[in-house]
Amino acid sequence: MVSSEVTGMKSWIQAARPLAHVNIVIPILLGQVAAWHVTGRLSWLWLAASLTWGALDHLFVVFSNDFADREADTGARTALSGGSGVIPEGKLTPFQVERAAQFAALSLLLLSCALAFAGRAWTPFYGLAALLLMWLYSFHPVRLSYRGGGELLQGIGVGIGLPSLGYYFQTGAPFAPGWVIWPAMLLGVCSNVLTALPDVGDDARAGKRTWPVRHGVASARRFASAGIAFAAFAVFWWTPSVSMTARAVMSIAPLIPLLAGARAADPLRAAVWSSAALNLLIALWMLAMLLGL
After folding, report:
1. Interacting residues of 67 by C-beta distance below 8 A, sequence separation 6+
2. Which of 3, 203, 278, 286 is the 20 to 30 Å CA partner of 139?
């Protein structure tokens, strides 16, 4: 017989969505790797600090998202769906999830202030920006994830904010270089569009005007494919101090799963293949910078 403590722990692990943490940790690591690529130096302490900051930001995002979507969440899930489902499944109450989001937000701000005293004075700005973006994305009166425009906020957050945070912790420069943030921002927008593809029916019924709902599945697929291809070209063209061979590999290899996604008839399969292309591009990009290829 499973104890209530074990059941409760499993519910909180489900609510924390550990696998979704990749959406936070990869952009932070991208900024850290770019800093290594530029300076040739890496502080393990600041790497650990950035990953801790990212873990708290992740918890704030997933708990806030569950609470904000509690009325529209049907409980249906795909491999790419947002939300943990703990509230519609009755595993946790909205009050519990709301309190968890508030605790994560407070912890994020306290850590940001501590890191400011440790030598990174801009960190509270990043903490407040993270809270503001989530509020604009999910909560009244703005709620851009429902009104339309949530993909742009995600692009700003994971494409500009998180890579810049990682870069800042290593170098002290407040923002990552343009050759990092502009391709990353485009990929962040595309990621939002792709994760919304399988949920287009539920989102439309809930009044959630995601990109696929506003423009249609076919148009959303074309936009995401083109965006990833343009980002690959930008990585090829702009990344400094990387050999032409490495640039070609990291820009062309992701086109293979991208073409598979373009040919897939099912929106979920298309989104999975295109997401694989996006993540492969980022992985090869970081590998080339990390190894100095």
Report:
1. 87, 94, 97, 98, 101
2. 278
